[in-house]
Each structure stands twice: as structure tokens, then as C-alpha cells.
Design a protein that fits this description.
The protein is of the alpha+beta class and about 100 residues long. It is about 25% helix and about 15% strand. The protein contains two helices and four strands; from the N terminus they run H-E-E-E-E-H. It has a four-stranded mixed beta sheet, covered by helices on one side. It is flat.
């Protein structure tokens, strides 16, 4: 079956951590199902997610290499735009760090 038709069949670590009161943020490749909204990272225990849902995406254009050629770069539920994934991940990580640091001062 294509990955986008699959969904999670069990609890994952992010859900357990959220239940215990932790803030959980994901950056990278999800690849655990996106056929329905309930399978997306922010429905599976993550407070935020920045990255791709599938494998086989292009590094610069973020278009999934498939017959559909869908955009595959996301910030939570929104499509994200970026030129180079690693540069923007660094920006997101630094922004998150600054936010958390301010909250704990």
C-alpha cells in the first residue's frame, strides 16, 4: 500500500511524553502516515512539526517524487516554503530555543 494510505497502529513516544506533561516538537521526516488529519504529527502528540511527511522529496524544491508531484514541506498543517531544508531547520531550532529560554527566565 502507498504510505499516504497507511496510518499509525499503536501509540508513539510523542503521545506518551505529551500525556506526562512534556512539550514535544518534531523536525525532520514524519513518514508515519498522512492519509487523514488524525495521522499527522500534531495529532500524534507533537506540539509542532516542521519537515516532510514522505520520503523521496527533492532537497531544493520540496516536491515529492511521485506521479502526483505534491509539495511536501510542512510547518504544522501549513505548507512551508524554504530554499534549503537544513538552513531553515536551523532557523526553526534556534527560534524554538529562544522561545523556551524566555519562558523559563
Amino acid at each position: 500500500r502507498p504510505q499516504e494510505k497507511k496510518g499509525p497502529i499503536t501509540e508513539i513516544l510523542s503521545e506518551e511524553l505529551t500525556e506526562r506533561g512534556y512539550k514535544v516538537h518534531g523536525v525532520g521526516k514524519w513518514h508515519l502516515g498522512d492519509g487523514e488529519k488524525k495521522y499527522l504529527p500534531t495529532e500524534r502528540g507533537f506540539d509542532s512539526f516542521y519537515g516532510i511527511y514522505h520520503g523521496m522529496g527533492t532537497y531544493y524544491t520540496h516536491i515529492h517524487v511521485s506521479p502526483q508531484g505534491q509539495h511536501d514541506f510542512h510547518y504544522d498543517y501549513r505548507n512551508a516554503s524554504a530554499s534549503i531544508f537544513t538552513e531553515t531547520v536551523d532557523d526553526v531550532g534556534n527560534s524554538f530555543y529562544r522561545t523556551v529560554t524566555k519562558q523559563h527566565q
